[in-house]
Design a protein that fits this description.
The protein has about 260 residues and is of the alpha+beta class. The chain has a domain of about 180 residues: Sandwich (Jelly Rolls), CATH 2.60.120.920. It is built from 5 helices and 17 strands. It has a 15-stranded mixed sheet that branches. It has a two-stranded antiparallel sheet with strand order 1-17. Helix 2 crosses helix 5. The protein is globular, with a radius of gyration of 21 Å. This is SPRY domain-containing protein. It comes from Chironomus riparius. It holds the Pfam family SPRY. InterPro entries: B30.2/SPRY_sf, ConA-like_dom_sf, SPRY_dom, SPRYD7.
Amino acid sequence: MFANELLRTCCCLRRSTKNNFPLSTPEGLISLDSGHIGQEVVVLKNGKRLCGTGGAILNQALLQSKSYFEVKIQQTGHWSIGLCTLNADLNKTRGGLDKFSWCLNAENLVMNDGSVIFDLNELYSSQNENGSTANGINEDTENLLPVENNSSNEIHHVMPTTQSTSNQRSILPQEGDIIGITYDHIELNFYLNGKNLNVPSLIKVTGSQPNNNGEYNSNEIYPCLFVDDGAILDLIVDNFNYPIPSGYDKIMVEQTLL
């Protein structure tokens, strides 16, 4: 009798109690979501590579307090990298053109709702005019080079000789570079080859909004990628190329026990 009573009690607890546990998951469980992609998008490499035309989001929202992931610019073209809600239009060729997405793009612009939040071209050109060293190379140039080029023996082969182009090579994203993204439910930040670009963007989402189909989606925030003109992006959610910024962690999945 005691055993039967205990069994009934446990069953009631399982039906009435919901416990959420954020768990660090294997890399294979997090990928681009084939159910939320643009019509002309192609997803390859087990959901880790995006090509074609349009956007895609991850199959996991950023639920933890501080998240980090990376994206490699595998092939140049027009790309956008950032965050969005499920209301974002993934058939667009660029992110940040609607109010549901916040993205850094290949034109070196951070955009939301079609407006430029930061222009890296203008921001860093003005800094270079005031802060370049005597030989025309910013003091952080070597640290901003991709991993495979980050050695003194190769700097002369990848760095142009003029001041303007050398600073642009070190500061603005190019093919082979790694873009890091952090999000703390308030602010989005971008990193280039491990260096903070110092372009913090506030993420403000208020109230559910209908998408293009008139459906209402949640305001959860998802990583998003957009490609066009031959661009190829590779998603990195584990085994990162650069150290995770202090206080942040890789994307975790919340599992629910019913």
